[in-house]
Specification:
24 strands, globular, hydrolase activity, Immunoglobulin-like, Glycosyltransferase, 16 helices, 20% strand, alpha+beta, seven-stranded antiparallel β-sheet, 3 domains
């Protein structure tokens, strides 16, 4: 299954189009200005000899420039914008000027420690930065038809292959990402060495003689120091880097969540190109562990701020949840590979859950503020880890971070969202997501245009119009989301049976204007967590369609800790066109302590002398919280239970 390219797909959707336009009109310019102010672009100018000065910022700052460039190029692919094109052209020229004669390019090492190149794989992100350059180069080629940045990328890739190829330096990247990028570069150029190197990096991770292990114990030989959470009590813990065992032997998702997602995505790309069924089985096993034991109801992953990592099974704290925005992006792209490999709808379902909740929460409605970490509970006193890192653990989104991966990651995903909607193989057209859009796809040598109108995520209604260039027989596969009920699908006016959580496969002769009409219901669902999840004991989360809801203090008659939701009570569903740029809200029944029982302020009293009363509280989509000022918030809310 191959995704439709950005040149052949576009989005026209009531929900997504305004958000993508906000990224185009606000976020792209806002982030570029921060790249300038923080010295990230100036580092390239200094490395190119066009300016004097010292390197500014963190050693991985090049990657933020490349990610911005990738996102900007996605917009240029579909929109003509002379000002943005000029900015992109200038940046591409600057990057090329900074490259050394042998192909090496990394401004930190060029300006700070030129003698230490390739010596500190586990900390200093050289290969990671290169991977983001490769992705930007391919996006630039697609947008402009030029190969100037691809030439820079291939020169660097050749340099890396000479260093790390089959007969070269034994080592893998401390921060993955180059694996998936090398496969993209292979597809762009046809150069087999790039695919071989990606496979090499995937298969040699976790070797007994791991270079990462060696560097962790010999920091005096390299730039920088070892991470505290890699060496403890004299023992190497490779889980942080997914380096504790060969990937094919790993049973659980471990370590830094973003690194893990990029590794699994790269491994998925290798499997797509090589037909490696064993590798696919490994990825499916890891996915099951993540989704059944180590993932938030929003799709967020990586529960601990210490190491930005996965921890143990069912360890999903709410108030200190990390759930990095970049990890959500990583999950979306990994699930895309699993969807391509298996054609199973559950991977697209998880993409939707993550996209509408864990990913979208990372960006403010105006497109200029970002969450790095995404808590699932916020107390009235703010974040409990705020003093440790006031920016990363704030109760409000921030305008920038010293580590700015999230502000540069979100735009490139939303700018390329159209590529997620459709896919095809030799004989089938897949509709993976219910998003208003249009695409042109070649199926079984027939050019097919598909147009989609959709009311998602607020209502379960979509209509597809299929127009082949001439009547043709092929299969169309429509995903029926797992959270739909009362599903009805008609194909050219004929009722067809469909099952939630699966693809509906329709093979027939299609003629111009044939329609598929999908209708269903989004019931309000009160979700309970596995009893082993201590942080959600006695509580429920609320979901409608793909959207997970939360409570904010300003929408509640009482402090949130006093509420006990009534899952069997009445629920009023209403769409408020003014609130948070238009959202569907839920008015939920709840119990609260009757205040008269506590008149006079006793600290304690017998349960028999207290009573409760009913009230109503409004729930909003989780992605929309913290857009109306600082406030308390909860995803998991105490509830009356018939389960105990």
């Amino acid at each position: 299954m191959k995704p439709v390219s950005l040149t052949d797909a576009s989005i026209d959707d009531d929900f997504w189009t305004p958000r993508i336009q906000t990224v185009r009109d606000s976020t792209i310019d806002f982030v570029y200005d921060r790249l300038v102010e923080s010295g990230r672009i100036e580092n390239f100018r200094i490395a190119a000899g066009e300016a004097d000065g010292d390197f500014q910022g963190r050693f991985y700052n090049d990657s933020d420039v490349y990610k911005w460039l990738e996102g900007a190029c996605y917009f240029l692919t579909t929109d003509s914008d002379a000002d943005l094109r000029e900015r992109v052209d200038e940046l591409v020229s600057l990057i090329a000027s900074a490259q050394e004669a042998d192909g090496y390019l990394n401004t930190y090492f060029q300006l700070v420690e030129p003698e230490q190149k390739w010596t500190n794989l586990h900390v200093l992100h050289e290969l990671y930065c290169a991977g983001h350059l490769f992705e930007a180069a391919i996006a630039h080629s697609e947008a402009t038809g030029e190969d100037s940045l691809v030439k820079v990328a291939t020169a660097l890739a050749d340099h890396i292959d000479e260093r790390f190829g089959p007969d070269g330096y034994r080592g893998v990247p401390g921060h993955e990402g180059i694996e998936l990028a090398l496969v993209k570069l292979y597809r762009e150029t046809g150069e087999q060495r790039y695919l071989d190197l990606a496979e090499h990096f995937v298969d040699h991770r976790g070797d007994p003689d791991s270079r990462l292990k060696y560097e962790a114990f010999h920091p005096e030989e390299i730039a920088g120091d070892a991470y505290d959470h890699v060496v403890e009590d004299g023992e190497y813990d490779g889980r942080y880097f997914q380096d504790h065992a060969p990937l094919r032997e790993q049973e659980t998702v471990e370590g830094h969540a973003v690194r893990a997602m990029y590794l699994y995505t790269g491994a998925g790309d290798v499997a797509i190109e090589t037909g490696d069924d064993e590798l696919v089985a490994v990825l499916e096993r890891l996915w099951e562990n993540m989704t059944e034991r180590r993932m938030y109801v929003t799709g967020g992953i990586g529960s601990s701020h210490e190491g930005e990592r996965f921890t143990g099974d069912y360890d999903l704290p709410n108030e200190t949840s990390y759930a990095e925005t970049c990890a959500a992006l990583g999950s979306i792209i990994w699930n895309r590979r699993l969807l391509q490999l298996t054609r199973e709808a559950k991977y697209a379902d998880l993409q939707s859950r993550t996209l509408y909740n864990a990913l979208l929460a990372g960006l403010s409605l105006d497109g200029t503020r970002f969450f790095y970490a995404n808590p699932h509970e916020m107390g009235p006193e703010g974040h409990p880890l705020h003093d440790e890192d006031p920016n990363r653990f704030a109760a409000q989104r921030q305008g920038w971070f010293q580590t700015a991966c999230c502000p540069t990651n979100v735009p490139r995903l939303l700018a390329s969202l159209a590529t997620q909607v459709y896919a095809s193989d030799d004989s089938s057209l897949y509709v993976n997501h219910h998003i208003g859009s249009e695409a042109t796809v070649v199926v079984d040598d027939t050019t097919v245009t598909v147009e989609q109108e959709s009311s998602f995520p607020w209502d379960a209604e979509s209509c597809l119009t299929v127009t082949p260039a001439q009547p043709a027989t092929f299969e169309l596969a429509l995903r029926i989301p797992e959270w739909c009920t009362d599903v009805s699908v008609t194909v050219a006016g004929e009722e067809t049976e469909a099952t939630p959580g699966e693809f509906l496969h329709v093979e027939r002769e299609w003629t111009a204007g044939d329609k598929i009409v999908f209708e269903g219901s989004f019931p309000v669902t009160f979700v309970r967590a596995n009893p082993n999840v201590r942080s959600a004991s006695g509580a429920v989360a609320v979901q409608r369609g793909p959207v997970v809801y939360c409570l904010e203090g300003q929408d509640s008659p009482r402090p949130l800790h006093q509420l006990r939701l009534l899952p069997d009570g009445d629920t009023v569903v209403d769409h408020d066109h003014e609130l948070l740029d238009g959202v569907t809200t839920l008015d939920l029944d709840a119990l609260v302590p009757e205040e008269s029982c506590w008149a006079g302020g006793p600290l304690y009293q017998p349960d028999s002398e207290t009573t409760v009363e009913t009230t109503t509280v409004r729930a909003i989509p989780y992605y929309g919280w913290a857009n109306r000022g600082e406030d308390e918030m909860r995803v998991w809310v105490d509830a009356e239970s018939s389960q105990l």
